[in-house]
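User: Design a sequence. Structure:
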């Protein structure tokens, strides 16, 4: 895989000093000043706090500042936050970067509200995170969903073939943009170069939810980033694959197809007016760490992981580690997708087995679990994971196939490329009266709630979507296999809300 990117070629690097962390340094100066706080927050730089927990929190509380004199304002950055965002844009190859303290969720909602007015159409990949659907709901948009492709070995959804998306765009020239998830939760990524060209020829932006690809393009051995391919808006969870604190994310933009002024206005509406400055500073530090050390460490980590994966694979008798396929353009080497050769053993069972071995997987599904590695994994840390895999592999050799019942295929999406236009907008469906019925009696009705297996947080059903027999069967299968549903009206999944 040859992914050399000119973005990080020494001859084209900017003169910005990435050893600096302006926002973090400003908070350190704030702490050293020891001025008497006569403003929020109420813990007064940690002077008033739970005594038992103070030792653990004190260092953070001292820099848990607010938009006071000497510290910049996220909603109108002119100083330290502005400088930190400029450095981030340079590091990731964007024209402009916005810091987010509500995760990629806030970024996705902000994108929807920026691009779409009530009634506007937008072409959306169906296997998007729930935050995209929530954003479209709030905007009053009329999404046109396109069914994803399914990778044949793992059975997980990925970006559909570009021909399907391009045809959908030609058939719907009045859409406000094209929105995809790339990579998926499992690290599978498609080459979007042609799609970018198609979108720009049509005069619409390409939006990429790249929550799990913040490290993409940062080394030759990982997939290229969406920004390097020309995407217009890219949302990244800097806390997922890089080193920022939980909830700290970035929204990057390129070009002029989207109004930066409107996007800034929208983010000012939906982000807290009292954002966490430690979280914002962690974004500044994550960028510095990445540029100063992380890129080199990423290369070393990938080499260690790939070497060990290749060595381990032929030793396994019952487990498999996915090594890529012709159906996927790029595979993230920081993610190991593990499944059992015995298809009767679900990913939910593997999750429990590995948990007992001291390893908590990132995600489980009917077939797989996913291990997520960091930028900097030592050989010792990798060996701990390898030993757990070997132990489970040996344990499963003792399992009789009769101990598990054979299960049918779990269908999550329509046939690849299928376009679906909801009969009722997400916003209208959300506000309509509803009633609860038995799940088996819901076939043919319009769904009245979001049915959300979690993770990965991709809705199986959304408000206003027609419930089919396949939906009912899939919900029952997932529940029986041990899947977790987030915020259902009925934890047993034996009943569901439908629109009256």
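Assistant: Done.
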């Amino acid at each position: 895989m040859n992914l050399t990117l000119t973005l990080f070629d020494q001859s084209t690097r900017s003169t910005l000093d990435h050893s600096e962390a302006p926002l973090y340094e400003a908070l350190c100066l704030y702490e050293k000043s020891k001025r008497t706080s006569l403003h929020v927050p109420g813990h007064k730089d940690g002077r008033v706090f739970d005594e038992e927990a103070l030792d653990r929190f004190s260092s953070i509380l001292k820099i848990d500042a607010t938009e006071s004199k000497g510290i910049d304002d996220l909603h109108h950055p002119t100083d330290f936050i502005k400088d930190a965002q400029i450095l981030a844009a340079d590091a990731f190859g964007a024209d402009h970067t916005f810091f987010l303290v509500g995760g990629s969720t806030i970024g996705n909602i902000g994108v929807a509200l920026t691009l779409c007015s009530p009634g506007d159409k937008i072409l959306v990949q169906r296997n998007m995170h729930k935050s995209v659907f929530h954003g479209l709901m709030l905007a009053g948009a009329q999404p046109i969903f396109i069914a994803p492709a399914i990778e044949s070995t793992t059975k997980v959804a990925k970006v559909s073939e570009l021909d399907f998306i391009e045809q959908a765009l030609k058939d719907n020239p009045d859409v406000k943009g094209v929105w995809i998830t790339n990579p998926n939760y499992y690290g599978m990524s498609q080459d979007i170069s042609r799609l970018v060209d198609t979108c720009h020829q049509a005069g619409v932006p390409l939006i990429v939810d790249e929550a799990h690809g913040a490290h993409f393009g940062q080394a030759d051995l990982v997939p290229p980033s969406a920004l390097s391919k020309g995407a217009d808006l890219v949302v990244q969870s800097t806390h997922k694959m890089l080193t920022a604190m939980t909830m700290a994310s970035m929204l990057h933009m390129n070009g002029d197809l989207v109004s930066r002024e409107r996007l800034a206005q929208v983010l000012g509406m939906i982000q807290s007016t009292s954002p966490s400055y430690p979280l914002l500073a962690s974004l500044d530090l994550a960028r510095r760490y990445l540029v100063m050390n992380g890129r080199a460490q990423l290369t070393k980590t990938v080499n260690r992981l790939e070497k060990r994966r290749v060595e381990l694979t032929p030793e396994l008798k019952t487990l498999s580690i996915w090594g890529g396929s012709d159906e996927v353009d790029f595979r993230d080497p920081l993610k190991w997708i593990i499944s059992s050769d015995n298809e009767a053993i679900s990913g939910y069972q593997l999750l429990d087995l590995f948990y007992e071995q001291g390893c908590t997987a990132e995600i489980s599904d009917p077939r797989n679990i996913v291990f997520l590695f960091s930028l900097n994994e030592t050989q010792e840390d990798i060996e701990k994971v390898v030993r757990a895999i070997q132990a489970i592999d040996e344990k499963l050799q003792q399992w009789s196939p009769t101990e598990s019942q054979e299960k049918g295929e779990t269908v999550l999406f329509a046939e690849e490329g299928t376009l679906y236009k909801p009969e009722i907008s997400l916003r209208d469906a959300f506000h309509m009266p509803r009633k609860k019925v038995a799940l088996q009696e819901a076939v043919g009705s319009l769904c009245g709630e979001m049915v959300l297996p979690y993770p990965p947080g991709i809705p199986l059903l959304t408000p206003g979507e027609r419930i089919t027999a396949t939906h009912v069967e899939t919900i029952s299968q997932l529940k029986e296999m041990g899947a977790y549903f987030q915020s259902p009206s009925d934890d047993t999944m034996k009943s569901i809300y439908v629109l009256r």
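The first strand starts at residue 96 and ends at 100. The longest helix spans residues 277-312.
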